[in-house]
């Protein structure tokens, strides 16, 4: 009769108390001649114990860590089926934006309000192992008072993913982009009537083998950039001296030392060739090397830290090579299921849009904090630092940006977004210093 109370206690207990009762039920006594066939009640208790055990085991074995982006459920579309294996997705954004300094200048600032419309289409397959797709998107901005700053950018590209088996994947992408240079950045041309426009044609591909003790990947890209003519006071300015071809190749490898640590290495080469070199050649080529660790302390902390060397040689005889420390840092910390912190930093050499500057050495640092307020609301804040070292000029432009936004999912397909930001640049090299603030509000729709 001792078993009946045990059954009742087992049925209504949980946690550590249930675990202790399970051990009591399935306990086998010391060998002896007094063993007998278990009673029906005892067998019922054992049956309940066996039902309880899988829940205990699975609770201990599964290490699931939710993050704010897991808890928060953004708007999402189911896609429009066009055939058995082809789907069309669309995400569109409509925003109203106020900016206190649309030209990013230090004096005689101009503030204005603009309407921003973005729409992105994605046509893709839903095959089990492979993927083929096409993306196309357009962004249009219209100012209420300063119509000269109105702009339209767009892009289209095709992409493919092939799963070759044995942990080998191949990725390919190619397309076309019409973009503009943001006012106040290195690519901006002072005092132009409209933002500077450019066209990119690009192709890139990679092959990777992941999931084993040794992981490796090889990637390459080719970009052809061409600038359209600009104007100052309706006088045309030829920007073809900026046109360039940029080639890059990268080899990555990592070796697993333990379940939580991998050795990480990366070697990259690049080549920049300009169509025109007025006065002095700006063509250059170089390489960078990185070595470090990828340390996944737990599901809560994931860190990649690597240091190395960077070298960029310029064809111009009087231009000193850009050399020095290279680094990359990526870190993610999830202290609680509702909080997530992400930090990153890197250094790289970028092509120069200026006729007398062969290259720009950029340093970027980013910090982002996310807080989920249930499955409908996500609060995010971030800060970005960018240093631009103009080779051939003394000094460095330093740009600081901070922002915060709130995303609220109204329905499954619609979200509201409110954002505010502040930016400041110290023009140590270009001589262009400025600051400005912006506020925006809008809706995002996914189909």
Form type: globular
Which residues form runs of ≥5 with pLDDT under 50?
A: 25-37, 45-63
User: Which CATH architecture of the largest domain would you pick?
Assistant: Beta Barrel
Q: How is the biggest beta sheet arranged? A: 18 strands, antiparallel, barrel
Q: How many strands in all?
A: 21
Order of helices and strands: HHHHEEEEEEEEEEEEEEEEEEEEE
Structural class: mainly beta
State the helix count.
Answer: 4
Approximately what portion of the residues adopt beta-strand conformation?
over 45%
What is the first-to-last residue Cα distance? 62 Å
Number of domains: 2
Oligomer: single chain
Task: Give the CATH class of the largest domain.
Answer: Mainly Beta
Could you say what the CATH topology of the largest domain is called? Answer: Porin
Protein name: Outer membrane beta-barrel protein
Pfam families: BBP2_2
InterPro entries: BBP2_2
Structural notes for this entry:
This protein is mainly beta. It folds into 2 domains: 3-61, no CATH class; 68-446, Porin (Beta Barrel). The protein is 11% helix and 57% strand. It is built from 4 helices and 21 strands. It has helices at residues 3-12, 15-25, 40-61, 68-71, and strands at residues 80-81, 86-99, 112-125, 131-143, 151-165, 168-180, 197-209, 214-227, 230-232, 235-237, 244-258, 261-274, 284-295, 301-314, 322-336, 339-351, 359-372, 377-390, 396-409, 414-427, 434-446. The strands form 2 sheets. It has an 18-stranded antiparallel β-barrel. A two-stranded antiparallel ribbon has the order 9-10. The longest helix has 22 residues, at 40-61. The termini are far apart. 16% of the residues are buried. The model is unreliable at 25-37 and 45-63 (pLDDT under 50).
């Amino acid at each position: 009769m001792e078993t009946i109370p045990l059954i009742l206690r087992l049925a209504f207990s949980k946690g550590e108390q249930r675990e202790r009762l399970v051990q009591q039920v399935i306990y086998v006594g010391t060998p002896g001649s007094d063993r007998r066939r278990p009673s029906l009640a005892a067998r019922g208790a054992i049956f309940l114990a066996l039902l309880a055990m899988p829940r205990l085991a699975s609770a201990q074995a599964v290490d699931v860590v939710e993050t704010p982006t897991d808890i928060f459920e953004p708007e999402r579309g189911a896609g429009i089926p066009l055939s058995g294996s082809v789907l069309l997705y669309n995400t569109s954004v409509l925003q109203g934006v106020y900016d206190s300094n649309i030209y990013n200048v230090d004096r005689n600032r101009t503030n204005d309000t603009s309407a921003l419309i973005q729409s992105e289409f994605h046509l893709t397959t839903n095959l089990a192992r492979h993927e083929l797709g096409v993306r196309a998107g357009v962004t249009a901005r219209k100012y209420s008072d300063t119509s000269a700053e109105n702009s339209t950018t767009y892009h289209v590209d095709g992409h493919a993913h092939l799963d070759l088996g044995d942990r080998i994947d191949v990725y390919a992408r190619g397309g076309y982009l019409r973009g503009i240079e943001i006012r106040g950045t290195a690519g901006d041309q002072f005092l132009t009537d409209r933002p500077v426009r450019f066209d990119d044609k690009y192709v890139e591909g990679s092959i990777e083998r992941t999931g084993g003790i040794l992981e490796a990947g090889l990637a390459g890209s080719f970009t052809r950039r061409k600038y359209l003519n600009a104007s100052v006071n309706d006088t045309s300015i030829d920007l073809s001296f900026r046109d360039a071809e940029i080639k890059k190749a990268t080899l990555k490898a990592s070796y697993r030392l333990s379940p939580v640590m991998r050795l990480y290495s990366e070697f990259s080469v690049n080549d920049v060739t300009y169509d025109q070199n007025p006065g002095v050649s700006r063509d250059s080529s170089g390489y960078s090397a990185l070595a470090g660790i990828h340390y996944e302390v737990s599901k809560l902390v994931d860190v990649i830290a690597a240091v190395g060397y960077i070298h960029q040689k310029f064809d111009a005889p009087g231009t000193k090579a850009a050399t020095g420390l290279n680094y990359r840092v990526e870190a993610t910390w999830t202290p609680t299921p509702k909080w997530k912190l992400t930090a990153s930093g890197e250094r790289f050499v970028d092509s120069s849009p200026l006729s007398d500057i062969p290259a720009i050495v950029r340093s970027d640092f980013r910090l982002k904090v996310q807080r989920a307020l249930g499955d409908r609301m996500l609060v995010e804040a971030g800060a970005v630092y960018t240093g631009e070292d103009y080779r051939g000029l003394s000094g460095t432009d330093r740009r600081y940006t901070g922002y915060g936004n709130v995303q609220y999912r109204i329905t499954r397909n619609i979200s509201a977004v409110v954002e505010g930001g502040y930016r400041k640049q110290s023009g140590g090299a270009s001589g262009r210093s400025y600051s400005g603030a912006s506020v925006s509000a809008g809706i995002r729709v996914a189909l």
